[in-house]
Design goal:
Blueprint: E1 2-8, H1 21-30, E2 34-39, E3 44-49, H2 53-68, E4 74-78, H3 79-87, H4 92-97, E5 102-107, H5 113-122, E6 128-131, E7 135-139, H6 151-158, E8 162-166, H7 167-177
Antiparallel strand pairs: 1-3, 1-4, 2-3, 5-7, 5-8, 6-7
Helix pairs in contact: 3-7
Length: 183
């Protein structure tokens, strides 16, 4: 069995409480996942399972649509991929100083280098963006709330779909994948 992290896109944000984490946990257990744990109310699930991340993501997406009546993007990474993403953060100093101002945006595919360069050149804000393996790192020195570099803009300009987690959440998820589930 492999430990995985599933990151659901845009559930329980903006006052829309679409999925209770207890219901999501139960759905994952019904799907045959083991040691299922959730973090926060924003669609973070740690579990063990057999299979490939893409197949697990597709199955979980279909199960969510069947159970809750809406479609949501689901990003699944192994514990090792999460650890690599955390370790590769080019803004680690900034994340240590202000973890709420650094995010990892997991994406469905790597954006074209040219598109990333154009976004960086065209964006006049103080934010900095860097690409990893199916993850973008964004430093928001003035905070996310006032930034014009939104997830929607990043997705549109880069031609990707993604979901972002701030560095506090990233480090908590990393700790969870290294711990066995409590009985």
């Amino acid at each position: 069995m492999t430990t995985f992290v599933a990151l659901l896109r845009a559930i329980n944000v903006g006052g829309n409480n679409l999925v209770k984490m207890a219901a999501l946990k139960a759905l994952c257990e019904k799907a045959g996942f083991g040691d299922v744990r959730t973090l926060l109310q924003s669609g973070n699930v740690v579990f063990t399972a057999s299979g490939k991340p893409a197949a697990i993501a597709g199955g979980l997406k279909a199960s969510i649509a069947d159970a809750f009546g809406f479609s949501v993007a689901v990003f699944v990474r192994t514990a090792g991929e999460l650890e690599t993403a955390v370790g590769a953060n080019p803004f680690s100093r900034e994340a240590a100083d202000a973890p709420g101002q650094v995010v990892a945006m997991f994406v469905d595919r790597d954006p074209a280098a040219e598109a990333l360069d154009r976004l960086a050149a065209d964006h006049a804000g103080p934010e900095r963006i860097a690409a990893g393996d199916r993850v973008l790192y964004i430093h928001y020195p003035d905070g996310l709330g006032r930034s014009k570099l939104t997830n929607a803009l990043v997705e549109k300009r880069l031609g990707v779909t993604g979901t972002a987690r701030n560095w506090n959440t990233m480090t908590r998820l990393l700790a969870m994948v290294g711990e066995p589930a409590a009985d």
